[in-house]
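Case study B.
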Amino acid sequence: MKILETKNLIKRFNGIHAVALLSIGIEKGQITGIVGPNGSGKTTLIDLLSGVLEIDGGEVIINGVRKLAGVLPHQISSYGITRTFQNVRLFKQMSVLDNILVVATKRSVFTSLFEKHIEYHYEISEEVLQKVGLWEKKNQLAMNLSYGQQKLLEIARTLAMEAEIYLFDEPFAGLFPEMKKIVTGIILELKQKNKTVILVEHDIGLIRELCDQIFVMNEGKLLAKGKPEAVLKKREVIEAYLGE
Amino acid sequence: MEYLIHLAILFSIYAILGVSLNLVVGYAGLLSVTHAAFYGIGAYTTAILLTKTGVGFFGSMILGVIIVIALSSLIGIVLSKFKGDYYALGTFGFNTIIFAIFLNWQNLTMGPFGISGIPKPELLGINFANNFNFLILTLIFLGLIYFVSRFITKSPFGRVLKAIREDEKAIVVFGYNTPYFKITIFFISAAMAAVAGSLFASYLTFIDPSSFRLTESVFILVIIILGGLANLRGAILGALFLILLPEILRFVGFPPDIAAQMRQVVYGVILILVMLYRPQGLMGEYKL
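Model:
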């Protein structure tokens, strides 16, 4: 069953198509890789799916019925979508714990004003921070963490959202091998829980290891799709992506 | 003693202004220089109602707060479209407009002549014409406003404000409709400034537009930058420091003919030193 589909999706920047008539379907409970050379439109696609950028044309369909067209950016998360960013975007002058708690509580002005943090909020914060090994650093400011730890905190923040679709934009970039293992474990655990993961990644080894299917993008268009082993052997993919 | 009470009253009023502005600047990261406008509206509402109608002090304060909430909500809606420096420029514009109204709507505000003969409050037989009683009154309001501000900043709402300050685009992705949060904190802060304005008008018994010009907004901003952004006690410390500093400098012993200018110089040098060596302010948790 397709949990997310794009149909003829378009995004233009100054007349140039960053995403051009892109139609892809993402299966529920699978890990889908989005690969392609720099500037191929991968991050733009993630930005469109998460509401950071406005869609210029085409549509995004969730669960076969709900369409993202006309939905305000802050409403996208209610469709069960969450994400990390290619360049880490934490709330840097806030503590590690606050970076998690801020996404674990109610969203409206009134309820957030009078809501008290209950045990559950702290439990989920502890659970996700333990998972990425940052619980001991919960009172540190996010800005004082190393780059790798900041990336892990960003991933922990998405886990606290308890979403259905996780968009991870280059989550392994700049991580030490130990940290890569943690992220790999998290992605596989999400799959085990029947969550959907969309992974933008340059590391072909990780793509092969983790992904059930991949989409190869080039110049905003879909170049190839299918199982990683088969797709990565295609000549046009090797030419575009590996430059060979 | 009477002079110390006078300074304590001024400190309390500026502490209210500092604590309330810190909610917008320190917590939400919105660089506002229009606080004096709301402070002025609170002061003028009290001054006009007490001198021209039978409304009492507390009634005038409530009405001032209501007017300010309505106006600041409208201004907040407009300002929520701006970010960073443009937000500051927008607030700059509003302070200038409100000041021009105070100065030119002569039928209502008496223009540059100001409004005099504003009576002191009276409640349950307590006459606040006595300065000590008035000090207790301002301290009670300072306590209330501190308590409300603390409640806000410790709530999940306060945490969202900080997240908006840090990265508004990112917090939107996690489902927060940020303009509502920005407008809400803006009008709460403005309402608190109106309370300070009512106290100020009634205490001095005379107000004119000069107390509410842009430089006053900048002075309140300096209080919180010096005391510490995103720290309520820092705002109080900043008010204490900036209200008492000119008084302390009186005793330094500068030659009488240049004493006033030297006090300004020392005042400026201290500010520069704090900014150089303690940019987050004395107790701040956030750097601009």
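Chain B has a mean pLDDT of 92. The remaining cases will be described in the next quarterly update.
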